[in-house]
Amino acid sequence: MPSKVNKRVTLLHGRVFELIRENVTLANGVTVDLDIIRHPGASAMVPLSDKDTVILIKQYRHSVGDFIWEIPAGTLDPDETPLECAKRELAEETGFLADEWQKMGEITPVPGYSDERIHIFIAANLKPTEQNLDEDEMLNVHEVKVDNAIEMIHKGIIQDGKTIAGLFMALHWLKEKRWEH
User: Fold this and answer.
1) Comparing C-alpha atoms, which of 72, 69, 80 is closest to residue 49?
2) pLDDT band at residue 175, thresholds of 50, 70 and 90?
């Protein structure tokens, strides 16, 4: 038995997530109150415009007070599959559709206080469509060579965790897969 939840209280029901306080007895017998963000999950994708070029966005994030480099991503809607979410977000944020999709894996970005899981996909064979940003989204779409994107990580220009994970997953995927286009 890893833990037993003795009591659960919702502290905040936000637009996207809930903040829950759980009184938990851990497997070692210690009882503790834990604050947990319950999140519906998200999807992110590494859109490849060709075998060595990725689409990145530079998006304003109020929580960090600046624009940051990211791969496109978004929160799962109720009853939406991770792939459906990825397809929707790619079109909305970048103005592209993809004919080829491959799930590369999942990450848990902040397991110390959230149950959020981000499903990460490769999106390839891109075709333009209409971009449809949410009213609170401020972003610019950029084509970046994969090698330059990896260098941006090493220089600290890209700091977003899902983006770092996604780009390294994509780098591995590109090395293992014979590009068909």
Assistant:
1) 72
2) confident
Q: How far is CA 17 from CA 24, 70, 75, 90, in A?
A: 21, 21, 10, 22
Give the type of residue at 86. A
Question: Around Cβ 70, how many Cβ atoms within 10 Å?
Answer: 21
Going along the chain from its start, the domains and CATH numbers come out as: 3-38 (no CATH), 42-176 (3.90.79.10)
List, for residues 97-131, the tens digit of each pLDDT value: 999 999 999 999 999 999 999 999 999 999 999 99
Residue with tokens 């890893």: 2
Catalytic residue from among 93, 100, 116, 135: 135
The single residue listed with the structure tokens 């809930």 is 18
176 a catalytic residue: no
